[in-house]
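Please review the protein record below. Let me know how this chain folds according to its tokens.
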Amino acid sequence: MVVRITYVVRTSRYRNRDNGIDDERSTLSVPTSGSVEGDAAYAVVPVRIAYRQRGHAVVENGAWTFALRNAGGTWKIASAAFAPATR
């Protein structure tokens, strides 16, 4: 079974404005692991987050872990957590 994840990043405009962040973009890759059991699933998805902070380009790599629930035949994100890549 393939679970396709469509994830919309919603960030606080106030947090971003206070920290001088703009032009934020997240690029999700193919999930590296995951599991489906009944109406629950999880997926680990590598992500590249790029933005400008006070005029300087910043790139962060890491992974989103999504917990998913099947509600009426549609998989929905129940929870998500980001972990930065270790160096």
